[in-house]
Every structure is written in structure tokens, then in C-alpha cells.
Design brief:
Layout: H1 11-69, H2 76-102, H3 107-130, H4 136-169, H5 179-186
Helix pairs in contact: 1-2, 1-3, 1-4, 2-5, 3-4
Length: 195
């Protein structure tokens, strides 16, 4: 029997296309997840650092106020040291506040999410639906479950990342001065004026 006499099975094309599409979805999905988690971690770390510095600034400011209101001799050296520390914290806060103010969901992740959904639909689901077996109802149920899990996991990860971004951009406590006053007064106007 020669190769010319064997009629090619058209199912191999759709099956192969679905396998290649699945590989691409998995590969690109891995990069998507990695980038999403990296951004989420950066946003969480920035918020923690802002909170830490803000707490340090407030503590230093309260100590300065106590020194200023204390009766008796003023300790000029301690006051100068505290002023220097407070100003240093304000300088460290300035770029973090700028980062907080300008934080936005990266467009690259939105593009990757759309491409993954299109690749899942066009490169995996559509070729599998084109196969004659198993029965249509079985294929639809199977594909709906698998594609549904893929979409639900992707949406859950996006929501977690958006939650980190929202937390970063959330209003900060106003225990002493506004951020604008801290950054304007303490850095001589060099910092951002975001609150």
C-alpha cells in the first residue's frame, strides 16, 4: 500500500491545531501569571513601605512636638537629629507617593489577557469543536468546563492584582499632616503633592 493511496484524515489537522494552541495558551499564560504576580507584589511592597515610612514620620513628628512643648531646657542636638531624620523620611516618601499616585493597571497585561482569551477560543476550542467525535453535546460540556475554569482562574488572578493596585491607591491615614504638607514642607517642594 503506497502513501498516495491513503486518504488523509482531516481530523488530524484540527487535533494538531488544538494541541499547538493549548501549548501556546499554557506558555503565554505562564508569562501572564508571572507578570501579574510581579506587579501585584510590587504594589503590595510599595504600600507596606509607604505605611512604614509614614509611621516613622509620624513618630518622629510626635517626638519633636513633645520636645517643643516640654518645659525646661531644649536639647538642640536631639531636636536637630530628629528634624534631620524626619526630613530624610519625607525625602524617601516622595518617590513612593509619586509611584502611588501614578499607579495604573499595565496595558500589557490587558493585551495579554485578551490575546489569551482569543487564542483559547480560536486555537483550542474552535478546532476541538470541528472534530466529528465525540458527540457535540459531550464536546460542548467538556470544553465549557475547561474553558470556564481557565476564565474563572484568570479573572480571579486579575481581581487579586486589581485589589493590590486598589490597596496601593487607597487613601492614607491622616494622623498628622496631609501628604502634601509633609512632602512640600519637609522636602522644600521637591516631592509630589499627592494625598
Amino acid at each position: 500500500m503506497s502513501l498516495d493511496s491513503v486518504s488523509p484524515d482531516p481530523q488530524w489537522f484540527y487535533s494538531s491545531l488544538a494541541q499547538v494552541g493549548s501549548a501556546f495558551v499554557g506558555f503565554l499564560g505562564g508569562f501572564f501569571i508571572l507578570r501579574l504576580q510581579t506587579y501585584s507584589q510590587e504594589w503590595r511592597d510599595a504600600r507596606l513601605e509607604i505605611n512604614r515610612l509614614y509611621s516613622s514620620w509620624n513618630s518622629t513628628q510626635r517626638t519633636l512636638e513633645k520636645l517643643g512643648s516640654a518645659a525646661g531646657e531644649r536639647n538642640v542636638d536631639a531636636e536637630q537629629s530628629l528634624l534631620a531624620r524626619r526630613d530624610d523620611v519625607a525625602r524617601q516618601l516622595a518617590p513612593l507617593i509619586d509611584r502611588r499616585t501614578n499607579a495604573a493597571f499595565p496595558r500589557e497585561l490587558l493585551v495579554m489577557a485578551v490575546l489569551l482569551v482569543l487564542l483559547l477560543g480560536g486555537g483550542v476550542v474552535a478546532p476541538l469543536l470541528a472534530l466529528p467525535r465525540p458527540a457535540e453535546a459531550e464536546k460542548v460540556i467538556y470544553l465549557a468546563v475547561v474553558a470556564g475554569l481557565f476564565v474563572v482562574m484568570g479573572v480571579a488572578m486579575l481581581l487579586l492584582a486589581l485589589g493590590s493596585l486598589k490597596n496601593l491607591r487607597a487613601p492614607l491615614p491622616q494622623q498628622h499632616k496631609s501628604w502634601a504638607e509633609i512632602l512640600e514642607v519637609e522636602t522644600g517642594g521637591a516631592g509630589s503633592t499627592a494625598s
